[in-house]
Amino acid sequence: MATIRELLRVPHGDTVDLASVDPRSTPGLPDIRRPKAKAREQLSRVGDELAGYQERLYAQAKAGGTGRRLLLVLQAMDCGGKDGTIRKVIGRLNPQGVHIVSFGPPTPAERRHHFLWRVRREVPRPGYVGVFNRSHYEDVLVARVRGAVPERIWSRRYDEINSFERELVDEQVTIIKVMLHISPDEQRRRLRARLEDPTKYWKYDPADLEERRHWADYQAAYGDALGRCSTDEAPWYVVPADRKWYRDWAVAHLLRETLAELDPHYPPPSVDLAREKARLAGT
Amino acid sequence: MATIRELLRVPHGDTVDLASVDPRSTPGLPDIRRPKAKAREQLSRVGDELAGYQERLYAQAKAGGTGRRLLLVLQAMDCGGKDGTIRKVIGRLNPQGVHIVSFGPPTPAERRHHFLWRVRREVPRPGYVGVFNRSHYEDVLVARVRGAVPERIWSRRYDEINSFERELVDEQVTIIKVMLHISPDEQRRRLRARLEDPTKYWKYDPADLEERRHWADYQAAYGDALGRCSTDEAPWYVVPADRKWYRDWAVAHLLRETLAELDPHYPPPSVDLAREKARLAGT
Fold it and tell me: Taking every annotated instance into account, which residue ranges of this chain make up the domain Polyphosphate kinase-2-related (chains A, B) (predicted)?
């Protein structure tokens, strides 16, 4: 049976045509009755497994045995569900071993540096699970679509990103890049909910409507970024995300398959156990 | 009925005699059969409430309406359960709104600064729940017991801490300081478990045995710190922590009572809802 990683992975190379991926589809979920209930139930079980892997990853690094760490990069159109995914999936982990960073529009100070400068500073430490809520990919997405930099600049960033990510992989950072893929209709529904539900008013940003007008340009920019930067070392996955329960299920499985491959183990004792037991008994 | 805060709060002033608090007691838990099962069940429900408060606190700050934030300071003897408390209680919150910092022994660079320098940099931003795993209190605990600085230095730190915390309160930081109080026997049991359980070897640090020899000195140092720095603005609570299920229950309730008093609300809309709905329909 194909793994979820195989089903959702973007092939390296040409532009990806996002229109060919149905945002309401549920790849890898068995064809069953009540898939939503099933997916939620599995998420809970997989969440416990993730927490187990995370503790072993953390323990290994703490014992100095490895520099291994995980980095989840989340990208999406506005309302794509990045925050919800963090709450529902990353919320299953031990918060003490998690490093979450939201990359907003670069500040004036950040703009004076290379676009990767602020990103390098936030790479998770060994043993940690890092999450980028938006990332250096904004520099080939919004920066390109809204013309913040000329083509001469953004066009060379794909190679810069690939080099940067290769460096991270050399430092034992395992990278999982996920694009949460929603439809324009689903975005409208979610924006409308923010205007109708008093518990969601605070999420509404009028600037999102301006971005929405550039939907096609963003999809094209995503297509280039995903295709050109989905490498063997740092693959991109497209997760159909109109259905939140599938989105969470899929991201949890991507993490689980990746962590299972890393297969972290509790480290052996670093002390003479018998001797320490005797010392302890004497206190 | 007394609140958990009232039951566990340290009065301001003189040295606290920690020996007068039974680490196996369960103040505030109704006298019932199977208290452990009940406490765990309540923790789960209170956890959901905490997540609700947290979202409203975050939403308020995001809307710019307030600089309010929460800071939980956790202190304990080794094996006192700081990590477990974070996993079990703080793990109920949305990790994206949480800022956890572990303060280890100061680095040479940190030692060149005032002891509060590194702490100020980690104060949570508006809307966030910050957690200090150890804190500036180490500078009147280990620094005093192990003689890292002369009495002339550490003895004035209580006042410096009180001033610092008053500043934070002025910046709308609500401070909850919790000492997880275990017995020396319980510490021995937990240290032994780290020498007997292969999934816990990595937590064992031989230096903990050296610290353990100074138990009485630490209890005295805690007694001074708790009494002198339990102020109206930033109270200390002593949580009996030999029983992990009580510890988690109590910390969750301390947070809940504090957040209920803050009573954060979803902010009102910052836009003309009807106008935005019409704009959205036109996209």
Answer: 37-260
